[in-house]
């Protein structure tokens, strides 16, 4: 009688991981006391402040610096008037406990639905992007473009990785490029695979470029600028340390990726995702044969140019025209229509390929919605403010380098519960920034600790973008953790050292 082979453990899919986190978030709403700070918001039309409590009661106050001083809010009046601070800020000293708001089975069951509804902007963006990719794949445009690029970069493949990753890091540090990078994976994955890299190199180059850029933000309005405004200082304070940290972190990341890619090129079995690579190559290079590709003719060049032009337009719109997902989706809808016209395909084939491409990214879109559902559970459970209240109590009275280091760890923790960088900044800075005054430190140290901490945790936080990213390339979460854990350790040490330097200069 032959022995039955033991089933090999398979790490759960991204959806299962998210549902586990969703249940854990629900359990926390039973265990962590509910509580809330009062909020203050500026009403531009009436030129008044509106103080609101969790019970819905609102009080109108004059929009004066005197009111802010009495409430011990250190955000200058001009930051509200100029709309540098758009979200309600927490009022120091106003935290109060509330009746417990446990989120039970029905709330948990509904959370993914509410999350999808709340994330409809980015979901539509992802689906339209998938449609464009579908048309490009159907016409062989990507295959022809990959073959042409491979000839140009032969022998200099990692230079391409370094340049692309650094461009993404630049986008992250200047304007918070994060969700927009989802558009890059279908384009760059086939190119990187055809150049001899495994899929993990693609993920690391793009995702870590974005993560390091946002972690060490310099002019990012969604994090360091809004945090500095909420702390009552100029975002230029501490800029030098953040720039040096950015350069060092990006260099370390590229060195780490290079060592890994070299090891895998030498022996593909060294790849962390070696067993997944045949499936991934089949997905992205199914019809790609470098010796037998469609000609890179005028039609295909025109389609690729139209598609690629969408990215600088998108970046310009986000940076200068206050675009968000609705505008970006409109852009890619127009691009999709142009691609269909240029494709030369029959109408039914062209539209069918667009819909097939969109269908390929449905799982990514749903993951984004489920992840948002976790945040909804935490928000409705009223425990995020309690976490902030506890964090502020922990760091009060701590001095020097330890103050900044503990702050960074606490902001990493808070980043799980409040994954929005601007949301975390406007909520936490009015409470935590003044604590720097009590230990004779600059508030720029608090801003850097917030930026480093929430950015560091975003590398692996299931409530952020990572699971949607991994779903794009069909890589499991545990393999990402295995790959990135050593680099995260190095970045943690770097961040703590740079914070220490910032406290003494």
TrEMBL record:
The answer to whether the entry has keyword Membrane is yes
**Does the keyword GTP-binding belong to this entry?**
no
| Cellular location(s) | Cell membrane
Entry keyword set = Cell membrane, Membrane, Transmembrane, Transmembrane helix
Q: Where are the transmembrane segments?
A: 12-32, 119-137, 158-178, 184-207, 214-233, 239-258, 301-318, 324-342, 354-374, 386-403, 410-433, 453-473, 480-501
Give the main location. Answer: membrane
GO cellular component, alphabetical, reads: plasma membrane
Q: How does it sit in the membrane?
A: Multi-pass membrane protein
Database matches in InterPro entries: C4_dicarb_anaerob_car-like, DASS-Related_Transporters
What's the protein called, per UniProt? C4-dicarboxylate anaerobic carrier
């Amino acid at each position: 009688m032959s022995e039955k082979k033991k089933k090999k453990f398979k790490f759960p899919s991204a959806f299962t991981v998210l549902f586990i986190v969703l249940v854990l978030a629900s359990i926390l709403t039973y265990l962590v006391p509910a509580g809330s700070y009062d909020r203050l918001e500026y009403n531009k039309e009436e030129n008044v402040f509106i103080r609101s409590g969790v019970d819905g009661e609102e009080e109108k106050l004059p929009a004066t610096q005197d009111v802010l001083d009495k409430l011990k809010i250190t955000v200058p009046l001009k930051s509200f008037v100029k709309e540098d601070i758009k979200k309600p800020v927490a009022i120091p000293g106003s935290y109060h406990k509330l009746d417990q708001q446990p989120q039970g089975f029905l709330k948990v069951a509904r959370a993914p639905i509410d999350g999808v509804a709340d994330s409809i902007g980015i979901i539509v963006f992802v689906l339209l992007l998938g449609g464009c990719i579908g048309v490009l794949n159907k016409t062989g445009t990507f295959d022809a473009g990959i073959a042409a690029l491979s000839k140009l970069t032969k022998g200099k493949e990692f230079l391409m990785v370094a340049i692309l990753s650094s461009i993404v890091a630049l986008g992250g540090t200047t304007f918070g490029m994060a969700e927009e990078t989802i558009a890059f994976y279908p384009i760059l994955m086939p190119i990187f695979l055809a150049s001899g890299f495994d899929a993990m190199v693609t993920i690391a180059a793009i995702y870590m470029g974005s993560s390091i850029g946002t972690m060490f933000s310099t002019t990012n309005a969604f994090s360091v600028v809004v945090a500095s405004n909420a702390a009552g200082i100029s975002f230029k304070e501490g800029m030098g340390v953040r720039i040096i940290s950015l350069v060092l972190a990006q260099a370390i990341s590229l060195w780490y990726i290079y060592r890994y890619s070299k090891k895998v090129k030498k022996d593909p079995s060294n790849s962390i995702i070696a067993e997944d690579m045949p499936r991934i190559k089949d997905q992205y290079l199914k019809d790609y044969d470098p010796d037998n590709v469609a000609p890179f003719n005028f039609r295909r060049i025109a389609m690729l140019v139209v598609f690629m032009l969408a990215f600088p337009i998108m970046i310009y719109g986000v940076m200068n025209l206050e675009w968000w997902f609705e505008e970006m989706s409109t852009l890619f809808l127009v691009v999709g229509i142009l691609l269909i016209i240029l494709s030369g395909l029959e109408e039914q084939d062209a539209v069918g390929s667009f819909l097939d491409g969109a269908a390929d990214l449905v799982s990514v879109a749903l993951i984004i919605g489920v992840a948002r559902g976790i945040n909804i559970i935490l928000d409705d459970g009223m425990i995020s403010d309690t976490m902030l209240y506890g964090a502020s109590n922990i760091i009060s009275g701590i001095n020097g380098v330890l103050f900044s280091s503990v702050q960074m760890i606490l902001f990493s923790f808070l980043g799980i519960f409040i994954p929005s960088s601007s949301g975390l900044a406007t909520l936490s800075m009015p409470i935590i920034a003044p604590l720097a005054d009590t230990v004779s430190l600059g508030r720029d140290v608090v801003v850097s600790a917030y930026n480093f901490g929430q950015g560091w945790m975003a590398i692996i936080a299931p409530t952020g973008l990572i699971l949607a990213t991994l779903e794009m390339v069909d890589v499991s979460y545990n393999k990402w953790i295995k790959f990135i854990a050593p680099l995260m350790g190095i970045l943690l040490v770097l961040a703590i050292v740079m914070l220490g330097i910032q406290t003494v200069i």
